Automatic annotation (TrEMBL):
Coiled coil: none annotated. Keywords: DNA-binding, Restriction system. Transmembrane segments: none annotated. Pfam families: Methylase_S. One of its GO terms (biological process) is DNA restriction-modification system. Belongs to the type-I restriction system S methylase family. This is Type I restriction modification DNA specificity domain-containing protein. Residues 191-358 form the Type I restriction modification DNA specificity domain. CDD domains: RMtype1_S_MspEN3ORF6650P_TRD2-CR2_like. GO terms for molecular function: DNA binding.
Length: 381
């Protein structure tokens, strides 16, 4: 039967109730909401009740859905499906969370940069018809099976968190303390680099070209404790010549994000590059090993963020970063510590990569199981 025979799209628009769900509150491919406080907004939304199924229509490939366990209001980019009387809500939720439904929604989307699923197409999605008893048996089976998979995924998340804590502890201990437990002397970063500077966002679309066709232009979204060898888009040589604040920073510079959600994230330039005004680059080191400095900033991230100013979008300034004091052992000792941290963090990164791979396999297994069961390819026990 078509999807519209199993569920109705709720199209009402009302002032928000106390409990509100936005697209950002739904976790991809899990059927869950994020932990902690959810979004709060004052705009009207779509009301939902217990048993309704919410589905993120913006970028449907993100597979965001949730079976409502209470009444509330859904944000603008969320479809609310209300199951018909002869449809088990949990069965409907598994259909919406299945890989086939998400692919169908993606194909039924309109828009390139911000694709949105269209109900008029999505309503024709073919649903395997079962009586209510069979639907409940399927939902019971999937509750049990996905519950076991979710428990294993939670274990993977817990292990990853412990590994990240271990990595941070190693960096903080090694960069701040000598082997005898004494703290290293500290100096402002301005004493350690001949150049500390930022960049800008050139005005005019003609200044931008695709990646690889011009001079790399780094933004904070590209700083993930990584080597930056290419950027999502480049700027032209003409832009560099015309905009004086669009400096080219040398390969090997340490870059830190100064604004917003990515504040404190780091990168190392693997090529000469420009950057926008939200990035700050440290180059031309003097009496400092860049790798030691990189690990030091990483270990000090929480302290740096605490110095950020601003409410909605906290930020740190170049002036604050120039004054920021970092440990400064002898250079030979810095190199020894950096070598040690290369080895330690390398091993932890390898373990984190393995954990991420296992988690990805579990998520894939979960999606495949749901799809096989709700489409009838796999019979429930």
């Amino acid at each position: 039967m078509p999807f519209w025979a199993a569920a109705t799209l709720v199209s009402d628009s009302e002032a928000p109730l106390d409990f509100q769900v936005s697209l950002e509150d739904m976790v991809s491919s899990t059927g869950r909401l994020v932990e902690g406080d959810l979004s709060q907004y004052s705009a009207k939304g779509t009301p939902f009740v217990e048993g309704d199924v919410l589905f993120g229509k913006l970028r449907p490939y993100l597979a965001k859905h949730w079976l409502a366990d209470r009444e509330g209001t859904a944000g603008g980019d969320i479809h609310v499906y209300r199951p018909e009387a002869d449809v088990e809500p949990r069965y409907l939720a598994y259909i919406v969370g299945s890989r086939n439904f998400v692919r169908f929604a993606e194909a039924a989307s309109k828009g390139v940069k911000m694709p949105r699923a269209e109900w008029m197409s999505l309503r024709e999605y073919p649903v395997t018809a079962h009586d209510l008893g069979t639907q409940r048996a399927i939902a019971d089976y999937l509750d049990r099976e996905t519950g076991e998979i979710d428990a294993m995924i939670a274990k993977m998340d817990e292990l990853a968190e412990k590994l990240e804590v271990r990595r941070m502890s190693a960096m903080q201990r090694s960069t701040q303390y000598a082997d005898d437990g004494a703290r290293w002397n500290v100096v402002p970063t301005a004493h350690l680099f001949a150049s500390i500077g930022s960049g800008t966002t050139p005005k005019g679309s003609g200044y931008y070209v695709e990646s690889g066709a011009g001079v790399p232009w780094v933004t904070t979204s590209e700083l993930r404790e990584n080597l930056v060898t290419a950027t999502l888009q480049d700027v032209t040589e003409e832009a560099v010549a015309a905009v004086s604040s669009l400096r080219v920073h040398p390969r090997g510079a340490i870059v830190i994000a100064m604004y917003g959600a990515t504040i404190g994230r780091l990168g190392v330039l693997g090529t000469d590059a420009t950057m926008n005004q939200a990035c700050c680059a440290f180059s031309s080191p003097r009496d400092v090993d860049p790798r030691f400095f990189y690990y030091t900033l990483w270990g000090q991230r929480d302290d740096i963020i605490r110095e950020a100013a601003g409410g909605g979008q906290p930020n740190i300034s170049q002036g604050m970063l120039r004054r920021w004091r970092v440990p400064h052992p002898p250079v030979d000792e810095q190199r020894r510590i950096a070598d040690h941290l290369d080895e330690v963090t390398g091993k932890i990164d390898a373990m984190l990569a393995k954990v991420a791979e296992l988690k990805s396999l579990l998520i894939e297994r979960r999606a495949a199981l749901i799809t096989d069961v709700v489409t009838g390819r796999k019979a429930v026990a």
